[in-house]
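Ticket #4471: structure output looks truncated?

Reporter: J.K.
Steps to reproduce: submitted the chain below (253 residues) through the standard prediction queue, then opened the result file.
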Amino acid sequence: MPRKRPVVGIIGNSHLINDQYSVHAGGTMNSQAVSEVAGALPLLIPADPRYVSVAELLEVCDGFLLTGGRPNVHPEEYGEAPTPAHGDFDRGRDAVVLPLVRACVERGQPFFGVCRGFQEVNVAMGGTLHPEIRDLPGRLNHRMPPDGTLEEKFALRHSVRFTEGGVYHRLLGAAEVMTNTLHGQGINTPGERIVIEGFAPDGTPEAVYIKDAPGFSLAVQWHPEWNAANDPVSRPLFTAFGEAVRDWAARNG
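Returned output as attached by the reporter:
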């Protein structure tokens, strides 16, 4: 029999089809990156505490991909009041993912945060977010272009410079890379133990990990799941994540 693949829980987003039919969904590119590059079995998670518990997820899954998504983390999670600039929310996802991140950090269970997932990692560790970074002096507009093909929307748009000799520099073999950018919010104050190792040219934090976390705890503000099998930045990130998940499964299976 072929060796059983470890399971990566992919955080799903809640939204409506035709403004009526409620679904939990995840982009196909997330499943493709997990399966083809990380070498794991992708399992879509309905991120709603009415249906799943953190304890169950930790038992069923070996690692987690904290995906991007249109709704933002509710600012009450970091002590601020909501405003129109904060956009839409997904309180079910907040209730599942924030404690899930903290549990994974404590256990050493691997997770990889992407875009909203990057922001969730910061908030879970006590950090705060800017609701709209393009309104800050000197910042770029990091939002997804409103028009064009998927290829155009996910095209490489700015550089990210890493800390010399840091985790990302060693993993990617480069001190500076090009990435896509499709986000409106960003880190304001970093959470406890959040180490920022990558910045966009305008100073926006783009790559973090959690200091002294016993397991894989990387998170990036861009979308490495796009073209993950071929992109020279995305592929080593998902490969390393897959290795961490396999290690966890071997030790805890």
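Triage note (M.O.): checked the attachment and the full token line is present. The CA atoms of residues 186 and 221 lie 8 Å apart.
Status: closed, working as intended.
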